[in-house]
Amino acid sequence: MICNAREAQGLPDLSYRTERLGVVSTDTDSGGTDFSGGTDSDPAAAVLAGLDDDQRAAVLAPRGPVCILAGAGTGKTRAVTHRIAYGVLTGATAPQHVLAVTFTARAAGEMRGRLRELGVGGVQARTFHAAALRQLRYFAPRVFFGRAMPDLLERKAALVGQAAARAGLRLDRTGVRDVTSEIEWAKSALVEPDEYAAAAAKAGRDLPVDGGSLAKVYAAYEEGKRRAGVIDFEDLLRSTVWAIEEHRDVAEQIRSQYRHFVVDEYQDVNPLQQRLLDAWLGGRDDLTVVGDASQTIYSFTGASPSYLIDFGGRHPGSTVVRLERDYRSTPQVVGLANQVIAGARGEAARVRLRLIGQRPDGPAPRIAQYDDEPAEAAAVAARCAALVAEGTPASEIAVLFRVNAQSEAYEQALAERGLAYVVRGGERFFERPEIRGAMVLLRGAARSVESGQPLLGAVTDVLTSTGYDPGSRPAGGAARERWEALAALVRLTEDTVISGLVPADAAEGLPVLVEELAARAAAQHAPTVEGVTLASLHAAKGLEWDAVFLVGLAEGTMPIIHAKTAEQLEEERRLLYVGVTRAREHLWLSWAASRAPGGRGGRRPSRFLPVGETEVAGATPRARSKRKDRGLPVCRACGVALFDTVQRKLRRCSACPADPDEELFERLRTWRLAVSSGAGVPAYVVFTDATLTAIAEDRPTTVDGLGQIPGVGPRKIAQYGDAVLALVGGADPETVVGVAEA
Ligand code: ATP
Ligand code: MG
């Protein structure tokens, strides 16, 4: 369902901002749990092990400005967390002097988790907003004239609606949300109401109402907020900047507390956040930034890769490290990613990196064309089912699309196949009532559990008391969802024990587990509930799966129809690049020639798909026959275009099974030729082609079964029965001919 332009673009629902920005439960993630004192005699040396030369260079770069320009899956987060850990473990930096910031609660949680695993506690790893909130709360009495911090306005809709009315504008809900997005953009870009109209025109913003009216709503909203005595998320950052810039004592205290700064995903920084970073630094230069300009996909919210790209210019004498080795994806996936981004133009393309795949070879990515969208969705669902049947967990498969409205077709197609799925952006794991309940019970059990019992057993016991039966997955939607969530909690427990994060003994482990769960809940770092992931490309950022389907890659959807300027089109290309680089191994790209069955088929494939390869795509008989006319190689089983030489020789893609009938038929024919020429009779006297086809299709394993096949009577069975059964069993025709003759 399309609610507004933001959702239609596949963007996250901002009603979840509080959690997304990591400003809830900021007290649970003090980073204070100290897991240091591991078994390694030299933990600092251990931090260097497992890094490649470039990563090590990033970790060992001297104090001062460091810029790590790194592609997707190259170990960006690994490099920065190891740099922090190395500094702390060698004693060069005190953990409480480090402030590591990023942009989403999930990413901040990821950093904290990795630091803990490296045996480093006490480092602040937060989102910009969470860090600002903490500081502003602390300094509130000083900067707000003795009063507590104003309340934080979590949802702007009501105030924006009132402001619009005051400005003489009637807006529906969708209109309010779009106007809100504009106000957020303006505040993030440090644009004031009276500058708004000009700035929006210059930036080529796609405005829901005219710039002048929007500026009035913006001004009225600011006024309404002041009167209500509340501040919004952007004000949180602005107030912190102001507190530091205008209050010398505040600046001094913050700057003596934080001396080393790290920013992950720096290409996502906006002018307001950059201003805060500058305020924190106060002219100092102990700053490490890491980012990938090719993954800039939030420009429309005010984020700008310029700060990353121009880092060297802003910080003369900085160390620049490039990471190009991709540890996530197969060379085949990496190859396609490089092709997609190779055509990039503009600012972000200046620092484009060519990724070098480090993993073993995998299947070639496939680009397929379908007649219509339902056919595309059905084929994708069928392929998901095949992957699951081959052993890929459903949670390791993702279907990614450009706009949220595309989700529905895939939900239906997967449901028809009986495949579970999760829509990213749906209910969050730790907010589910059964998980909240389980956490309360686990916290209670942590106080009373006795030593000697394994942690996993204790956790399962606690969950069983709520009616959870690990051995039986119930039927029915809601019950199954509940069961799956609890099963995921058990898996999560298992993972933390295996990774050594939590002790395996219940008495020791349960309190640690409870803390770990609370920290993850705060970070919204939910384990995947078993099921195929459906997500927009925006929501897929930073995530990875074994198998990824990028669907709907037709012009108008990718790039999206309203992307018009060169810059907007480049952002669309980067969005596809982000999608491609999510796949570890299997990657399918597809598009449909029409929306509905029987359509005119006038659509064209996305301009970003590699030239030549997009033309040859197709998976329907119609598309297949067209391609055959052009003599281009396709898989004989599914009709998809073949790019890989080995696959071209096999005449099938690696994803499709060898056609057993065809292969057996060939062996039967070879055997028949040897027998007939040995006996000096025509081949059909031994068996006709039709009989061989029937044998190849039925694959009988017994004499009786063979006798059922038309054209196989008692005489033929006596003469050739053993030979045919041996061939069906996989025997080589030459050895069988020998047996038959003997
Ligand atoms: P993203 O683009 O999603 O932010 P990233 O660049 O931050 O990715 P990481 O998440 O740090 O990359 O690493 C990607 C994967 O590669 C992780 O599973 C990580 O453990 C692994 N990895 C990174 N460096 C190495 C290495 N030197 N040797 C082996 N594996 C590595
Ligand atoms: Mg990362």
What's the Cα radius of gyration? 30 Å
Going by CATH, the homologous superfamily of the largest domain would be P-loop containing nucleotide triphosphate hydrolases
**Alpha-beta classification:** alpha/beta
CATH architecture of the largest domain: 3-Layer(aba) Sandwich
Q: What small molecules are bound in this structure?
A: adenosine-5'-triphosphate, magnesium ion
How would you characterize the overall build of this protein?
By secondary structure, the protein is an alpha/beta fold. It folds into five domains: 223 residues, 3-Layer(aba) Sandwich (Rossmann fold); 74 residues; 211 residues, Rossmann fold (3-Layer(aba) Sandwich); 95 residues; 80 residues, Orthogonal Bundle (DNA polymerase, domain 1), CATH 1.10.150.80. The chain has 32 helices and 16 strands. The strands form four sheets. The protein has a six-stranded parallel β-sheet, sandwiched between helices. It has a six-stranded parallel β-sheet with strand order 11-16-15-12-14-13, with helices on both faces. It has a two-stranded parallel sheet with strand order 4-5. Strand 6, helix 14 and strand 7 form a beta-alpha-beta unit. The chain is globular and about 105 Å long. The N terminus is likely disordered. Magnesium ion binds next to helix 5.
